[in-house]
Amino acid sequence: MTVQNDTEYEEATPDMEEYDTVADEFDAEQDSAAIWSRFGDSDLPALPKMAAVNRAATAGAQAGLPPEFATALAHAAVDPSELRSLLRRPTRVNIAGGVIEAIDLDLYVPGLVPLPTNNRTMEKRVYPAAGADGYAGPLAGPRSASGATTTLWIEGEGVSHVLDETERAREFILANNNLRESIAARGIAMPVNVVFFELRHRDGEPSMPLLGTADGSSRITNAQQVLGLTDAQTHYHYPANRDDYRRFTGAISEAEPDALRPAARNRLIRQRNALITPARVFLRFTPTREGYDYARAVNAFVGMLHVDPPRPWSQTGKLEAMAEAVLEVLRGADVLDDPVHDYLAGLLTPEQAEDEELPVERDEQAAFVLAALLREQHRDLVNRGIQDVTAKKSVSPGRRTDVIAELALRATRSIATTLDPKDPERQRAERMRAPYLRTARLARYGKVEWAVTGRSPEELLEAALEELRADSSSSHSDLGLWVNRLELAAIAQYHLTAWGGLKREVMGDTEADKRGPQQILESMLSNDQGLRLLAQAIIDGRAGTHPRRLSESGDYQRGVRDKYGVWEEDPSGTPMPIEDAWLRYEVYPTGAALPRPVTPPNETPRMKATRLKSQIAQYIEQVNLDVEELANVEETQGGPLLDKEGWAKPNELLSHLMNAHSQISYWTRVAERQMTRSNG
Predict the structure, then answer these.
(1) Residue 279 and residue 77: Cα distance in Å, rounded?
(2) Who contacts 36 (Cβ-Cβ below 8 Å, separation ≥6)?
(3) What is the CA radius of gyration of the chain?
(4) Is 458:391 a contact under the CB 8 Å cutoff?
(5) H-type helices in 377-456, by residue range?
(6) What digits encode the pLDDT tens for the residues 595-610?
(7) How confident is the model at residue 212 (pLDDT cuts 50, 70, 90)?
């Protein structure tokens, strides 16, 4: 099965500039024949008669679909007679953990909704764990019953909660994946993937049976924007008022463009192009592997489309999607009970977390996630969750840790989303992400059974110092002599990364310290001064101030800034802040100079190749890190800066990257052939 993504319009049309500047109303002089659409100059299919719709609904029920599913599908189908035929011969599609029965047909866009839990919007969700006033948190789901089923369900507090969340998702998609003009000009060319789900309400309001796009939500959101539809219409009004739905759809499909004045004609042309979409409808899921249900299979399917190319989500969105899959795997394996699962997922408010006797401090929340999920005994389950939504055969330790660390920051990112872009707390939250993910790679986090105990920084420090002394006097390595230090480190790293005390390693400057922040943190766990600095970071961070330096004796290290902004020690000055450079080069230096690499005088061809491959790998990693950071740069008014500013004239740069990609791919194929020959 080939499934296109939300960039299909850009890929299918080499020159999109003429459409980038199209106004909401086409030029009144423009002839409708100049606009390409799926149906060209021909009439749109006529709105089907109700008798045909009813026959299709009956056929759906006879094929084993719930009556609500059969009815929604019959009303959405452009050709109900085709639907009846397809229901007799569905296509079987292999999917993670099972088999999907599916059919391919045209559907009316007003009969669909973007799945309200679209993972593309995950990085902008506000979770209850953030404790933000006025936010009820994301909708729950999608979930499903175990075994063979046709139905997913998504749940909200009530209608207003659902509409708040769908509007947030709509605004995010329109701002970050704007396909409106492309769809208005050309229509939706490639299929969207449609599932049936119930939209449930905890306040007792009746459930709404809906057809939602598991993949293709950006296309449907933009098409409905062209049609002028609101979430209230598509999610609540039309499913309960089929006559109004048919009047709206018929007014577009049966209108004559040439009978209208120019402005109205051009508006109608845009709506005609957006009215119908090709779709693949998932009818039924049958599991073939233990532990998989319909919801998990659909999430894995969508993740395979978007976590890896061709159309990836943002880096945060990808890691969030993998984290969701990991949590479902762990719950399915009975590693997590429901309260802990919901806590790790950020779905408990601080008050609910306190009732469950779980940490409520933001730094302890994050540390709890690391302690719970980085354990070695959970590695295979974590890997399985990540592999569910990626095309990777194996999971690297770095990828596994990044997914868990991203989940650890969910509450922090949630509260930051609600703040003004200029708010210092939001800026710290955005800056800390990359170094926090790196620092979480401290290997001991996964090798030792440690936990978050709720002790004060002072109590933790005392226990950590006693542990250090016991470890120093021990004649053998005892992992049990690390539990207090790791708890202290995991809580402190939250504040050190937020305030710049620990930063991501430098990749480009060959004379700089190449150690990752996790290596600096490891050094801090080896002596009294480091442990005292960690405790001080927690105390100051919780007070909302930059963590302050301590000397080896535990006193504040005081100083003043010179005219260049550099701190100089001065006993009469103010306590100096903990800075990454201070830790790297003064407190925990490598002990050796870091000269620029030079070519050895007697370098062999193999040595040279190894050296150049290593340099290229470092350069590529740096490019990825910089692109990731660039993607997270936001405008003052909010929203990714590069999504609005773009990248002018990138062709030469992309050509260099493609040449390198082509050459490396060629060498990889050569190596594979050589290995095959030698094995043969």
Answers:
(1) 10
(2) 185, 186
(3) 28
(4) no
(5) 379-388, 397-408, 410-417, 424-439, 444-447
(6) 334 455 566 777 777 7
(7) very high
What mean pLDDT comes out for the span 113-142?
A: 81
Q: Burial of 410 by CB count in 10 Å (0-12 exposed, 13-18 middle, 19+ buried)? A: buried
For residue range 131-150, what is the model confidence (pLDDT) as tens digits?
888 788 888 889 999 899 99
- Of residues 368 and 118, which shows the higher confidence score? 368
Q: Which amino acid is at 320?
A: E
The answer, yes or no, to whether residue 395 has pLDDT greater than 50, is yes
Rounded to whole angstroms, what are the CA distances from 542 to 368, 403, 521, 551? 17, 25, 19, 21
State whether the Cα torsion 128-132-133-139 is positive or negative.
Answer: negative
Residue with tokens 């592997």: 289
The pTM (predicted TM-score) of the whole model is 0.63
DSSP string, 327-396: HHHHHHTTSS-HHHHHHHTT-S-HHHHHHTT---SHHHHHHHHHHHHS-GGGHHHHHHHHHHTS--SS--
| Cα–Cα dist 152/302, whole Å | 15
What is the structure's pLDDT at 332?
83
Alpha-carbon distance values, 52 to 70, 78, 170 (Å): 13, 11, 33
Residue whose C-alpha is closest to residue 289's, from 2, 65, 94: 94
- Is residue 331 within 8 A of residue 28, CB to CB? The reply is no
Amino acid identity at 384: R
List of long-range contacts for 607-614, beta carbons under 8 Å, 24+ apart: none
What residues does 98 pair with on adjacent strands? Answer: 95, 287
Selection from 593, 419, 608, 405 nearest residue 502 by Cα? 405
Bridge partners, residue 548, by sequence:
577
Q: Is 134 left (phi over 0), alpha (psi -120 to 50) or beta?
A: left
Parallel/antiparallel/unpaired status of strands 192-201 and 208-215: antiparallel
Percent of the chain at pLDDT exceeding 90: 48
Cα 77 to Cα 69: distance, rounded to the nearest angstrom: 12
Q: Is the dihedral of CA 83, 85, 87, 90 positive or negative?
A: negative
Q: Which of 137-141, 259-263, 372-376 has the highest mean pLDDT?
A: 372-376
Q: 232 by DSSP, 3-state: which?
A: helix
C-beta of residue 91 within 8 angstroms of C-beta of residue 101: yes
Q: What is the pLDDT of residue 596?
A: 38
Q: How far apart are CA 319 and CA 323, in angstroms?
A: 6
Q: Going along 41-124, which residue ranges are E strands?
A: 91-95, 98-108, 113-114
C-beta separation of 575 from 557 below 8 A? yes
514 Cβ contact list (under 8 Å, min separation 6): 505, 506, 507, 594
DSSP per position, 94-112: EETTEEEEEEEEEEEGGG-
